[in-house]
Amino acid sequence: MFKAIVIEKDDQGYRAGVQSVSESQLPDGDVTVKMLYSTLNYKDALAITGAGPVVRSFPMVPGIDVVGVVEASDSDRFKEGDTVLLNGWGVGEAHWGGLAQKARFPAKWLIHLPEGITPEQSMSIGTAGYTAMLCVMALEKHGVTPDKGEIIVTGAAGGVGSVAIAILSKLGYQVVASTGRPQESEYLKELGCAEIIDRNTLNEPGRPLAKERWAGAIDTVGSHTLANVCAATKYRGVVTACGRVRVMYFPATVAPFILRGVSLVGIDSVQCPVEERIQAWGRLAKDLDMSKLDLISSQTIGLEDAVATASNLLDGKLRGRVVVDVNK
Predict the structure, then answer these.
(1) What is the DSSP secondary structure assignment for residue 147, as one 8-state letter?
(2) Could you report the per-residue pLDDT of 254-274, keeping only the tens digit for each?
(3) Per-residue pLDDT, 93
(4) Where are the domains of the chain?
(5) Beta strand pairing call for 83-87 and 297-302
(6) Of the candidates 247, 207, 243, 212, the residue with the CA atom closest to the CA atom of residue 227
(7) Helix locations, the chain, DSSP H
(8) Which residues of 201-235 are buried (b: 16+ CB within 10 A; e: fewer)?
């Protein structure tokens, strides 16, 4: 038996809580993992609270981030004792995830934890940081170098935004942070941003084209914010979109794309090919200042605390990353 957060939906309603689970209940997979840490992401919080239609089958164990030690393996890629990582692939939605003391997954979803990153650090980074690295890699791929100009990061005090600022600043980019939390200004400056702007300057309907300012962008918000960022992006600049807050609607025109040659690049961390995942995590080991993780990771909690903390995350009361020690 092991402990896990289990989400259930039946005639008694929708609920989530810590339960004792039998190993025989684990889903199919090639690799059984003794879990070390997971995280509490926005998607996990939606799943735990029922605030969003995230879970696709019940009962479900949430947790889109996984790090642990291989306990048993039917795959040639992994052996007992290997430390492995998993982000995305629908875990916590359609397949039991990481907010448990034990898990089982298809081997094709797993990668080895890269050298230079500890298991706990990998969860301070988590899907948010891995997504941030994919965004940075996309900017680089499309020719956005530090000499091209300012990079704006929206939702800057969140998990993706925080790691993105830390990476970009280490790589020499001039970063502007957009946030609705002015009390986090000092935190954002410590991460490496050069300027902070109020999100209200971006989250209302704007003009199809605005004065050119951004060489590139990492947008985690969507909607009017994304439209306004695109409208103010320089000729042949690049905007990466990796998230949305509340709505999927994109109220924009084609003007930035056909008049300035702006590129809008979608970033998907869930189905991203394994080769790119390995590259992204290798880059994180090299290009993320690990000393800044103490700033980015706001707290480490136990399984029992995760359910209550989920509501605080949705209410915007937390910054950065929440690591869950599943054995605490």
Answers:
(1) G
(2) 999 999 999 999 999 999 999
(3) 96
(4) 2-113+296-325, 126-266
(5) unpaired
(6) 207
(7) 42-49, 119-141, 159-170, 185-191, 223-231, 255-259, 274-287, 293-296, 303-314
(8) ebbeebeebbebbbbbbbbbbbbbbbbbbbbbbbe
Classify domain 126-266 by CATH architecture: 3-Layer(aba) Sandwich (3.40)
| Distance from the Cα of residue 98 to its chain's centroid | 15
Structure tokens at 50: 């029922």
Residue 155 gets the label, from left (phi > 0), alpha (psi -120 to 50) or beta, of left
Nearest Cα residue to 85 out of 228, 241, 285, 256: 285
pLDDT for 293-324, tens place per residue? 888 876 899 999 999 999 988 887 776 689 99
46 contact partners, CB below 8 Å, separation of at least 6: 52, 54, 314
Strands 31-39 and 65-73: antiparallel
- Output the six-digit token pair for 85: 């990582």
pLDDT of residue 147: 98
Q: What is the pLDDT of residue 320?
A: 67
Cis peptide before 146, with omega less than 30 degrees from 0?
no
The CATH code that applies to domain 2-113+296-325 is 3.90.180.10
Phi, psi at residue 199, to the nearest 5°?
-60, -25
Q: How high is the pLDDT of residue 67?
A: 98
Q: Residue 123 is encoded by which pair of tokens?
A: 């969860």
Which stretches of the chain drop beneath a pLDDT of 50?
none
